[in-house]
Amino acid sequence: MYGSSVSGKAVERRFPMAVSVIEHEATTTASPAAVFALLADGSTWPRWSPIGSFELLEPGDAMPEGVGAVRMFHTGRVHSKERVVTAKPNETFAYELVSGLAVREYRAAVTLSPGESGTTIRWRSTFRAKVPGTGWLYRRQLGRFIGQTVEGLAQGAGSVLG
Fold first, then answer.
1. Hey, what domains does the chain have and what are their CATH numbers?
2. 6 burial class (0-12, 13-18, 19+ CB within 10 angstroms)?
3. DSSP-assigned letters across all residues of the chain
4. What angle do CA 150, 120, 129 make, to 5 degrees?
5. What is the pLDDT of residues 32-88, one digit of tens each?
6. Beta pairing class for 70-75 and 78-88
7. Pairing of strands 53-58, 19-28
8. Fewest 10 Å CB contacts: which of 5, 41, 91, 155?
9. The whole model's pTM is what?
């Protein structure tokens, strides 16, 4: 007999969506403290990023927008709810998406490195698309948005708090 047969339970195979990575970097003349101050104050984001408005839903530990803080950002029809997971003053600020986009496991970490002429800002975001075949679209759209955000942060820190 040619062919094959399978006995027992049916096997369901799920292939996890690939992790998408977005990385942007910029340098500012501002100190790491000045950059961190903007990151840790969501009310400033609409001034230096493409974000339309901000709302603090739940305060965090140690500082209002520290670890555990839940923040809501509105940009057009998109309302993204984020939870702060790392707030190391002058070094690292990280958050994860709670809701608002059709992605899973979204996490962003912003690392600040002091240099001779200011601060290097490195923004790294990772996520998995919820819908198969849409990762490239989110990577493109979010990549553009995050790029504008990083550039705005560098300029905003240099002019406002530098």
1. 19-161 (3.30.530.20)
2. exposed
3. --S----SS------PPPEEEEEEEEEESS-HHHHHHHHT-GGGHHHHSS--EEEEEE--SSSTTSTT-EEEEEETTEEEEEEEEEEETTTEEEEEEEESSSEEEEEEEEEEEEETTEEEEEEEEEEEESSTT-HHHHHHHHHHHHHHHHHHHHHHIIIII-
4. 45
5. 999 999 999 999 999 999 999 999 999 999 889 999 999 999 999 999 999 999 999
6. antiparallel
7. unpaired
8. 5
9. 0.86
Residues 143, 148, 150, 151, Cα dihedral to 10°: 140
Place of tokens 């002429």: 117
Neighbours of 92 (CB within 10 A): 15
Q: What distances in angstroms separate CA 60 from CA 49, 70, 95, 107, 161, one per listed residue?
A: 22, 7, 12, 17, 23
